[in-house]
Amino acid sequence: MDFQRGSRHTRQQVSDILGGSIQGGIITTRKTPVVILYSDSHGGQFGYRDEWKDDGFFHYTGAGQTGPMRMWKGNKAVRNHVKDRKSLMLFIETEEKRVYRFEGSMQYVDHYEKEIPDSNGQLRNGIIFRLLPVLGPDGEEPVEQSPEQSPEALRKKAIEASTQAVDKAMRSVTYRERSRTVKAWVLARSQGFCEGCGEPAPFVRKNGSTPYLETHHIHCVSDDGPDAPSAVIALCPTCHRRVHYGEGGMEYNEELRQIPRKAEEAYASNRLMVVTAAVISDASRQVLVCQRSQGSLSGYWEFPGGKVQEGEKPEDCVKREVREELRITLDDVVPFMMTDYDYGDSYIRLLCYEGTATGAPVLTEHSAARWVQPGGLGRVSLAPADMAVGKRLTSRRAVSDPPLTADRDRMDYRAHRR
């Protein structure tokens, strides 16, 4: 909105862009989804001031010139800005009178009450808000999964951190560390794929350690402390910016709300299974699908793959499963997409990879295998969890993406079944 942290503006300039009055300390506006906070120096005349304190939070005095402060109007707008889906924008008066420095977008953490003087010098009950800067897509703190920590250990720490109540004596460094614990698990949960669009992370972090994704608080941090894992999602930069800056971003945020909630419910009930699948193409751009021979999904077709074992990397899992199921070697594995599907008794997080394969498949678990043009996948009875992969392949091949896999003969492999 034409504001950069540290930029200077008059109240009139702020009003021209954001709307709202040029009078008062807490300004709400119908023009934009923003609550404007002005911090003036005159509070010092009455024995209180807005300031950054040793706990690392910005302590901002609520509105109300005389008598006890009440949690209504502007004060209520600050407390409820997350619920009301509004941003807090803080402007602090500079040494140049009537000119304010933009301190940045803030988030409400909690508030406390304190005896402070009113405009008549009479002591009254005051409301003091504790605020933290918002770290949006361009200010994302680097959070990475420690290689020596298992996903189970990360999730346990995240759940424990998110259930701790906010202590008003808590320092911001401790507060942020709790959030980082939740974020570390969410990034591990994503397995390197955007939980919004399902695409793989667009690149690896500069140190080469982990795929780059950003974490998004669907509800932002509020007076309940850092969001629980069920309300934090790992997004690619495009999806993250779509939520914050794109047309229909609010509606997209609502769509995203169910993804981490359902995944965490499945984890808690031991229903979640991380499963891999392989997209193997031939020179004619056909893809290999296999027919299940047993279980509740017997007769359905799927992309070959299987369950990730404890301590196993998904890329290693898909290679192992293809080798065990088809007796072929899968090389040059690259991530393709991720999708979730709830079967009721199990919740599948399907991680799909593309790779080059050599050798003629020998069926060890499936009843049949065949090559299908992506455009024809809609006529194949794909297992429900695999249907999203089929749709993505159909859409992608429609724009003539080159095949990744080596040339091989196309045939029905029933004759090769062992």
Overall description:
The chain has 9 helices and 16 strands. The strands form 4 sheets. Strands 1, 2, 3, 4, 5, 6, 7 and 8 form an 8-stranded mixed β-sheet that branches. Mean pLDDT is 84; it is low at 136-141, 221-226 and 399-418. It has helices at residues 11-18, 73-79, 151-162, 172-190, 237-245, 249-256, 258-268, 314-326, 384-397; strands spanning 8-10, 26-28, 34-39, 51-52, 58-61, 87-93, 99-117, 123-133, 214-217, 232-235, 272-279, 287-291, 301-302, 329-342, 347-358, 368-372. The protein is α+β, with helices and mostly antiparallel strands.
Outline the secondary-structure elements.
Blueprint: E1 8-10, H1 11-18, E2 26-28, E3 34-39, E4 51-52, E5 58-61, H2 73-79, E6 87-93, E7 99-117, E8 123-133, H3 151-162, H4 172-190, E9 214-217, E10 232-235, H5 237-245, H6 249-256, H7 258-268, E11 272-279, E12 287-291, E13 301-302, H8 314-326, E14 329-342, E15 347-358, E16 368-372, H9 384-397
Parallel strand pairs: 3-6, 11-15
Antiparallel strand pairs: 1-7, 2-3, 4-5, 5-8, 6-7, 7-8, 9-10, 12-13, 12-16, 14-15
Helix pairs in contact: 3-4, 5-6
Estimated share of beta-strand residues: 25-35%
What gross morphology would you assign?
Answer: elongated
Distance between the termini: 65 Å
Number of helices: 9
| Helix/strand order, N-terminal first | EHEEEEHEEEHHEEHHHEEEHEEEH
